[in-house]
Amino acid sequence: MKQFTSVHDVQDVAALVNEALELKQSPYAHKSLGQNKTLGLIFMNPSLRTRLSTQKAGMNLGMNVMVMNLDKEGWALETRDGVIMDGTTVEHIREAAAVMGQYCDIIGIRSFPKLQDRNEDYSEDLLNKFIELTGVPIVSLESATRHPLQSLADLVTIKEQAAAGKRPKVVLSWAPHIKPIPHCVANSFAEWMQQADVELVITNPEGYDLAEEFTKGAQVLHNQDEALQDADFVYVKNWSSYEQYGQVLTDGEGWMITNEKLALTNNAKVMHCLPVRRGLELSHEVLDGPNSLVIEQANNRLYAAQAVLKRMLESL
Ligand code: CP
Questions:
Q1: Are residues 102 and 198 in the same domain?
Q2: Quick check: 165 and 178 in contact, CB under 8 A?
Q3: Of 198, 192, 201, which Cα lies nearest the Cα of 166?
Q4: Where does carbamoyl phosphate bind (predicted)?
Q5: Which residues line ligand 1 (CB under 6 A)?
Q6: Residues 220 and 270 in one domain
Q7: The total number of structural domains that make up the chain
Q8: How does pLDDT run across 215-267, given as a tens digit for each residue?
Q9: CATH of the domain at 48
Q10: Strand, helix or coil for residue 303
Q11: Mind listing the pLDDT tens digit for each residue in 6-23?
């Protein structure tokens, strides 16, 4: 595997999920694979789970791991081509990325969208420049439009938790939030679920439909109660408007998943990528109750990352 930026980089999704589950049983079985190999994890934005799980995944495979908060610890980065750098930026990505490629065998990069200009965000300019300029395999640690390591962990969790012999109904449910949130997790979840043996239903208020390139094939309902009927899994996530790009259009009253909402489902397991705003996106009662899978999801981030890094190490 030369890059992991979306589900389209994976030839056999079910096989990768199975590999993550095997690694969960024997996390140190491939400790010699990463010997004398270096993983660089570059963050332009905050992280808890992605940072720690990917770092640990590299260590479980015997890799040396370096982590850098490039936005705070690096030189102010210029990403536009052809500009005269007589302003505040100090180093161009053309040199910075190429230099990082000299030190690392695999690089992970996190770079969120700015949510100002849809075309700019959806062009994935920074991620593509890292792919072009580093010369080493690139793992997306969440880009402007997708969060593939999260989605792989989500699919691993659903595979583990689904009732045997039943194709689960999975509902991606929009949740309230106070500020504009990227589409990455929701886009990516929709894209991955459509490669899995599940029935995907997406529910969000009007004005919050995700880009069709991610949702085509899925049922999209603006009536949450209707969507929740007989659900086996409810994946809760906020996102800002795609149509009125980056805008918050409603306070989302009535959209938070509570025990009352869960009563509409088939005793659904509840998922969220975290961090979650308690009492706003998800109720305390659900998060602290028996249906919540959020900690197990976070645990599976480790084995998702390990499966991807293992594939990359094998292809070096
Ligand atoms: N879910 C997730 O990506 O968490 P972090 O932002 O803390 O890495």
A1: no
A2: no
A3: 198
A4: 47-50, 75, 110, 147-150, 273-274, 301
A5: 47-51, 142, 150, 273-275
A6: yes
A7: 2
A8: 999 999 999 999 999 999 999 999 999 999 999 999 999 999 999 999 999 99
A9: 3.40.50.1370
A10: helix
A11: 999 999 999 999 999 999
